[in-house]
Amino acid sequence: MGFKTFDQVVEYMEHFTNLERKTDRYSTRTYRLDRMQAIMDTLGNPQRSYRTIHVAGSKGKGSTASYIAAGLKAVGFRTGLYMSPHVSDYRERFTLCGSFVPDQDLVDAGNRLASALEGFRFRDSLGESEPTTFELYTAFAFLLFQRLGCQWAVIETGLGGRLDATNILLPEASVITPIELEHCDILGDTISKIAWEKSKIIKQNRPSFSAFQDPEALAVLRAEALSCSSAFSYLGDHVLHLDQHSVTYSDGSSFSLNLAMPGLVQAQNCALAILVLRTLGLFSPSVSLPAMESVALPGRMERIPWKRTLYLDGAHTQNSMGHLLETFRTLHPTGGVCIFGCVSGKNIDAMADEVLGCFDRIVVCRPGTYKRSDPQGIFDLLSSRSRQGQTVVLREDASEALKWVLENTTDDEPVLCCGSFYLAGVVKEALWR
Q1: Domains along the chain?
Q2: N or C: which end of the chain has fewer CB within 10 A?
Q3: How far apart are CA 409 and CA 309, in angstroms?
Q4: What one-character DSSP code corresponds to residue 167?
């Protein structure tokens, strides 16, 4: 098998079982670490050739991971960054600190992966199984970062933590961003259960860090850290003051923040990243902070050049939606229209209330076909809860949604697309057509 293009590499990985597309009930037969470790043993465990920082959580994983990676690069380390999902290009998942890797390196790593795993089957008491797509994505990232000579890699979990394919790592630090109710059919139906799943990235005698947390989640994380003899640093214990423009830590040090990604949530993500790097002795304010301030990610309050002021954001939980809309209203106190859509399995009820409380015009759109969704059901829900004077329309195709916006808004009205990274991707694709 000889790949000539990265598209062929992606096609190869995608033809395996892709759990990102599924909504089936979780089972240890499908999500498991022993198979992932067998894959990495076959590949020679490339993930052990560089140091890693492991990031889990419900929201803010990608931003926090990116801030950490930017800080590491700024002090001179060649740094890999592995994130998911992508918004519009698979290469977003496997980068050198946010910069795309040359296609030839991607192809060469793909050929190495496919060649080493040709005929691979995992066998145990449960029978025979083959790798999943996400396991291959992760193995590919680990191989690629070795090939590129990375000294550090910042690795974001896909879903959960305990049985996530990335959890074969022995990281220098484990970082957990805010935990919310999400993927309840897989991770559990309470904050405590979800926190327990995510806490399992904490490793014996390795430091761990946490963002601001719900008290239930924090209790679980502290208990896990204690059981692992992990030095646990909670952002709330280290910060005296934090707003979207500055952070002051309990040791008296203070930093101004002029972040490319606006809003208090991003300031919190950056403050956590600074705490991690300072604790590890990897932070130099004069070079680290400017690098972190310049971080901008697809689908995180991403402003897109268009005929209107258009923002794309992947917020897909109640809290993240609330914070997003607060940031949006800080920039645009009145008016505007929302393009909204999300995949099945999310807390659509809660997000619907947030959106209805902020916008008088809402366009419901299908967030692509990568995952199952029900735009008609979302439209019916929003319509049933809308108040007099509100307009809710259904335009499943992203191009039609954008067309409706142009026909029903003025040049100076802002537009926010939110509810799913997949929606951000299809709207961006429609803009390019």
Answers
A1: 6-293 (3.40.1190.10), 302-432 (3.90.190.20)
A2: C
A3: 11
A4: G
| 272 CB neighbour count, 10 Å cutoff | 31
Asked whether 217 and 195 are in contact (CB, 8 A), the reply is yes
Buried b (16+ CB within 10 A) or exposed e, 88-126: bebebbbbbbbeebeeeebbbbbbbbbeebeeeebeeee
Q: For the sheet with 391-394, list strands across it.
A: 302-304, 309-312, 414-418, 337-340, 361-364, 391-394
List, for residues 335-359, the tens digit of each pLDDT value: 999 999 999 878 888 899 999 999 9
The H-or-E segment that residue 225 falls in is helix 215-227
Helix axes 61-74, 285-293, angle to 10 degrees: 140
Which residues in 36-172 belong to E strands, given as ranges?
51-56, 79-82, 94-96, 99-100, 122-124, 127-129, 152-156
**Total length of the chain:** 433
Span 211-224, pLDDT tens digits: 999 999 999 999 99
